[in-house]
Design brief:
Layout (H helix, E strand, L loop, with lengths): L5 E7 L3 E8 L6 E7 L2 H5 L4
Antiparallel strand pairs: 1-2, 2-3
Organism: Sulfoacidibacillus ferrooxidans
Protein name: IS110 family transposase
């Protein structure tokens, strides 16, 4: 099995959290979405 590295970026504000994921290398990151800044929404995030 080959290991892979993922990088996760979080832009956090009082109201929301924006999430992006990038694979190892120089490819463009993938915008996952914007979520409310609540415990429930963080627990339910899918990547």
């Amino acid at each position: 099995m080959k290991d892979s590295t993922k990088y996760v970026g979080l832009d956090v504000s009082k109201e929301s959290i924006a999430v992006a994921v990038a694979d190892d290398g120089r490819g463009q990151p993938k915008f996952v979405g914007m979520f409310p800044h609540t415990v429930e929404s963080v627990r339910n995030m899918e990547a």
